[in-house]
Amino acid sequence: MDSAQVIPRHQTAIARQHLSKPIALAMADGVLSANSTLFDYGCGRGGDVARLQAMGYTAHGWDPGHSPNAERHAADVVNLGYVINVIEDPTERAQTLASAWALARQVLVVAARPDWEARTVTGRRHGDGIITKRGTFQKFYSQAELRDWINVQLRTDCIAAAPGVFYVFRQDSDAQTFLASRTRHRPAPASRPRRRQALYDVHREDMDALAAFIARRGRVPDPEEIAGTASRLLGAFPSLKQAAALLRDVTGSQDWDRDLTRARHQAERDLLAYLALAAFRGRPKASDLPKGVALDVRTLFGSYRAACSQADELLHAIADQKALNNACSRSDIGKLTADALYVHATAIQLLDPLLRVYEGCARTLTGTVTECTIIKFSRIMAKVSYLSYPNFDKAPHPVLATSLRADLRKLSVKYTDFRSSTNPPVLHRKEAFVPLDYPGRDKFARLTKQEERAGLLQEPVTIGTQTGWEQRLQERGYRLAGHRIVRITTAPAPEVFQ
Ligand SMILES: C[S@@+](CC[C@H](N)C(=O)[O-])C[C@H]1O[C@@H](n2cnc3c(N)ncnc32)[C@H](O)[C@@H]1O
Predict the structure, then answer these.
(1) Within 6 Å (CB) of ligand 1, which residues are found?
(2) Which biological process terms from the Gene Ontology are attached to this UniProt entry (predicted)?
């Protein structure tokens, strides 16, 4: 049977209300920037292209079903979004991947439906996928299968961007730049300038951009690294170092020096995590390091050799479950239980470098799990889970929606959906998961104190799931009102007169 004529592939294209996941991710990751061009290979109804154009991007697309006459041309970024999974013929699938790759000047973004979505689709088997009720074909990929297939077909090493989404970079230096940026922390706001200074005020925006760079990287940038900002500042200062000296002056030398020490320490940890993880792809030679990373290495470690040897120590330690367990129990961030450490996603960059590398290894398998709220580090097995609690901030006791668990020994990924569970896990003591400056942390802590006083948190095993927790509240005569507990008042029984 010539199934291509029978299977209406074009019907798989949906009318998108938002940017698709791979495009949104590429933007968030800086892989698709405002000055890069995009080609959407198999663009369906063209929702991504139209949205990007409206945002000012140079974006075009082609689709054999919806816009067959559009020109296929090269671009910096090529998106092959949810196309390969609708092609029933494995040879054509591979050809499509190769054709899209041939057009990608910098990076190809490949997305396909993950295997856990197969549970939600019924159909009859066809080749290595299924024919759905609508008569279209779908192949669902495990994360490892998709990664290996891309690597074999394109003879490269792709990078997991997220579950079901991979980046294939043309130049290894671009891949390294992306990987280094992924391990970089997002700095807390630095101290504000205290003294007024005319020169600072005139260049406030550029000075703040310079301060932000220093807070992120723990060093003064090379002019090329902040090109526009640098060219304006260098019109007023002999060097960026001198501009930074003025920043120190207006901020107050004590605050500035404290912030700089903190930033350097954090940047060192970022770099170690990157270099440890880079070993899995084969660490680049010193001469092949992206320029910014080479400068980080020189400023923070003196030499590449010194940095790599520290990163190697970390790598050896993550193979040692005892060392991981120790790092979990030592952690001053997160909630420690008998078998795991739980940390809010916003606190990840504050963790011990060993745990960051451990998590980085898991992320090599899964990519970024955008919906993740809490990361669970197993103390017993080499497993990291990305847990999603969509209502974490608002709900006093958030309910677990989904979990994506990376098994670092088996190199596999397992997805569990709790959304239709009748008794899903719930969280208590929310303040324990988050960093000290997390919005609402005091409110979370006040609730915990109230609940402790009311004896609601004893025997935590039974209250760990929704039913047990609701039962506990009822038994003790309480209900929740936002982040407070209140007594359930039963109306007095009416008096009966005989
Ligand atoms: C699920 S849709 C995805 C569309 C779009 N990328 C998106 O994310 O909204 C799959 C699309 O792949 C297109 N397609 C099918 N075979 C193709 C091929 N060999 N090359 C390129 N696109 C193909 C179909 O016409 C369909 O529009």
Answers:
(1) 9-10, 12-13, 16, 20, 41-44, 47, 63-66, 81-83, 86-87, 92, 96
(2) methylation
